[in-house]
Amino acid sequence: MSNLDPQLSKPRILVVGAHEDTVRVFEHFGLVVVGTALAIDTALAIARAGEPAFDLLFSTSRVYGDGDARDMLRALRREGWTGTAILTTANAFEEDIVADCRDAGFAAVLPKPSSAEAMLAAIRDCATPSSIP
C-alpha cells in the first residue's frame, strides 16, 4: 500500500545521497524531483519546512550526518512525514539488513548499483497507478 497522494499526476521525489545520474534518470522519464540532499539534517529540514513538499523519498543507505538512512526515515516519521520511501544499498542481499530497512519503513530495498529499470519499477510498484506516467 502506498502513501502517495492519488491526486498527483506524478510522485514528488526527494533524492537523498544518490548520485546525480539517478536524478537525471528520474527526470528523463518525466518524474518530478523536488530536491536533493546529501545529509540527514537537510532532509529533515526540508520535511519540517514542508517546501518543497515530497511524497516519495529515494535514498542510499549511507547519508551524511548522525546515523544512516534508516535513522533518517525514522526521524522523518517522528516529524510526521507519511510518504513512501525506497532505499538503495550495497547490502540488499543480506536478509537481516533488508528486514531492518523494511522495519524502519522502507517500502522497497534495491541493490546498489541498480539499473534505471529497477529504480523505475520500484517507484512504480510503490506508487499509486495514477502517479506514474
What's this, in brief?
With 133 residues, the protein is of the alpha/beta class.
Structure in words:
This protein is 38% helix and 20% strand. The chain has helices spanning 20-28, 40-49, 69-78, 95-104, 116-126; strands at residues 12-16, 32-37, 56-60, 84-89, 108-111. α3 (69-78) links the parallel β3 and β4 (84-89). By secondary structure, the chain is of the alpha/beta class. Strands 2-1-3-4-5 form a five-stranded parallel β-sheet, sandwiched between helices. It has a single domain, classed as 3-Layer(aba) Sandwich (Rossmann fold). The radius of gyration is 13 Å and the shape is globular. The two termini are 18 Å apart.
- Integer-rounded radius of gyration: 13 Å
Largest sheet: 5 strands, parallel
Oligomeric form: single chain
For the terminal residues, how far apart are their CA atoms? 18 Å
Give the strand order of the largest sheet, numbering strands 1, 2, ... along the chain.
Answer: 2-1-3-4-5
Number of helices: 5
Tell the overall outline. globular
The helix-and-strand class reads alpha/beta
Strand content: 15-25%
Low-pLDDT sequence parts: 1-8, 129-133
CATH class: Alpha Beta
Task: Tell me the name of the CATH homologous superfamily.
Answer: Response regulator
Number of strands: 5
- The proportion of residues forming helix, as a percent range, comes to 25-40%
The overall average pLDDT, rounded, is: 82
At CATH level 3, the topology is Rossmann fold
Helix/strand order: EHEHEHEHEH
CATH structural architecture? 3-Layer(aba) Sandwich
Number of domains: 1
